[in-house]
From TrEMBL:
<keyword id="KW-0812">Transmembrane</keyword>
<keyword id="KW-0444">Lipid biosynthesis</keyword>
<feature type="transmembrane region" description="Helical">
    <location>
        <begin position="245"/>
        <end position="265"/>
    </location>
</feature>
<keyword id="KW-1003">Cell membrane</keyword>
<keyword id="KW-0594">Phospholipid biosynthesis</keyword>
<comment type="pathway">
    <text>Phospholipid metabolism; CDP-diacylglycerol biosynthesis; CDP-diacylglycerol from sn-glycerol 3-phosphate: step 3/3.</text>
</comment>
<feature type="transmembrane region" description="Helical">
    <location>
        <begin position="136"/>
        <end position="157"/>
    </location>
</feature>
<keyword id="KW-0808">Transferase</keyword>
<keyword id="KW-0472">Membrane</keyword>
<keyword id="KW-0548">Nucleotidyltransferase</keyword>
<feature type="transmembrane region" description="Helical">
    <location>
        <begin position="51"/>
        <end position="69"/>
    </location>
</feature>
<comment type="similarity">
    <text>Belongs to the CDS family.</text>
</comment>
<keyword id="KW-1133">Transmembrane helix</keyword>
<feature type="transmembrane region" description="Helical">
    <location>
        <begin position="112"/>
        <end position="130"/>
    </location>
</feature>
<comment type="pathway">
    <text>Lipid metabolism.</text>
</comment>
<feature type="transmembrane region" description="Helical">
    <location>
        <begin position="81"/>
        <end position="100"/>
    </location>
</feature>
<keyword id="KW-1208">Phospholipid metabolism</keyword>
Amino acid sequence: MKTRIITGIWAGAIFLGLLYLGGLPFLTFMAALTVIGYTELIKMRQLSFKSLPVLLFGAGALLPFVGLYEQAENHSLSLGLSPLAWGMLIVLISLFWTVFSKNVFTFDDVAFLLLTAVYVGVGFASFTYIRLLENGLIVSLLIILLIWFTDSGAYFVGKSLGKTKLWPAISPNKTVEGAVGGIVLALMLGMLFEWIHPTVGFGKVLLLALIVAVVGQLGDLVQSAYKRHYGVKDSGALLPGHGGILDRFDSMIIVFSVLIVLGIFG
C-alpha cells in the first residue's frame, strides 16, 4: 500500500503538472504514453520488437499526433504523404510481410497490430485534442474527475451494497449496484462542478457525466477482457503498485475517443 501511495503521488503530480502546461509538453507526454501503451500490448501478445510490422505500427500509432503537433505549434509538418496514406502503407507492408515470413507473422498479427495502434494512438490523441481546445484544461479536468468519481462510486457502492454480478466472465468483482452507484455519483459531481464553475451548461454536463460514467466502465471492462484473454494481471509494471500505463488510462482513452466520435467537443 505504501508503494502504491508513493507512486500515486509522484505520478499524479507529473500528470497534473503537464496537463496544466498543455501545448507541446502535454502532447509529447501523451505521445510517450502512446508508445508505452503500445509496447504493453505487444508484450501481452508476445510479439518480437524486432519484427518490421511491429516497428511500423508503433510509428503508425503516433500518426494521429501529426495534426495535433501542427495545431499546437501553428506550423505544418511535412511527411510526404498524409497520415491516412502512411497508415495504409503500413498495413500493406505488414500484409506483404505475412508472405515474406512464410506465415510466421500472420494475418491475425496484422489485425492485432492495427487494432492496437488505433486503440492507443487514437485514445491518447483524443485526450490531447480536447486538452488543446480553448477551454481544454477545465474540460479535461472535469472529464478526469467524472472518471475518478465513477470508479470510486462503483467501488464503494459495490463493496457495501453489491450483490448482482455485472459481468462475472470478464470481471468477477464488479456488480450492477456498483455500476449504478458510479453513474449516480458522476451525475452528482457534474452538477456540483457546473454550479461551482460554470463550464458547459447543466444540460450538457448531465449528458457528459452519463456518457463518461457508462463508457468509462465499459473501457475498464474492455481492458479486463483482453488482460484475461492474455492471462496477465497488469498491463505492465512501470508504475509500482499500480501496474502499467494502460491500467491507469484504460477508461480515459476510451472515454476521450467516444467524446470525439460523438462530437461532444469535436
